[in-house]
Specification:
By secondary structure, the chain is α/β, with parallel strands linked by helices. About 35% of the residues lie in helices and about 10% in strands. A three-stranded parallel beta sheet has the order 1-2-3. Helix 1 crosses helix 2.
Length: about 140
């Protein structure tokens, strides 16, 4: 993880990472205190060659993977007109998903992995570790 300055650090995972530990640490770090501290992971940049395996491992730890359409809905509810919805700041993931009209199921449900402890993070795929650490680079 890279963290310094004003906060909102990305987490970069490359092909040398222990993917089980990375998945667990990403979820734990982002889930701490409902992801309010500026030191908590806010986005995830993953080298393409390990991205699918990392996502699967995170889902094994009950993380929620939203489709692009599902991602748009909470964003509109949590950030109407580009400003934070003060009624939702500091609320649980279950509350955020409910406000967005998305179903919430208990963790480890066979039908879905939408539980109260998961943390959605932005997912960017980089071609390699060198591309992942260049600020402002488009993937």
């Amino acid at each position: 993880m890279i963290g310094a300055g004003a906060g909102n650090p990305p987490c970069i995972v490359d092909e040398t990472a222990d993917l089980v530990k990375a998945a667990e640490d990403i979820i734990s770090g982002a889930a701490f205190d409902y992801n309010l501290p500026c030191i908590a992971e806010k986005s995830l940049i993953v080298v393409a060659s390990v991205a699918d395996r990392l996502i699967q491992q995170m889902q094994d730890f009950d993380a929620l993977l939203l489709s692009p359409q599902e991602t748009d809905t909470p964003a509109r509810v949590c950030l109407p007109d580009g400003a934070a919805n003060k009624k939702l700041v500091g609320k649980s993931p279950a509350a955020l998903l409910a406000a967005a009209g998305l179903a919430v199921l208990p963790p480890s449900s066979p039908a879905d992995s939408r539980g109260a402890g998961e943390r959605p993070l932005g997912d960017l795929r980089a071609t390699d570790a060198g591309a992942a650490d260049r600020p402002g680079r488009r993937f």
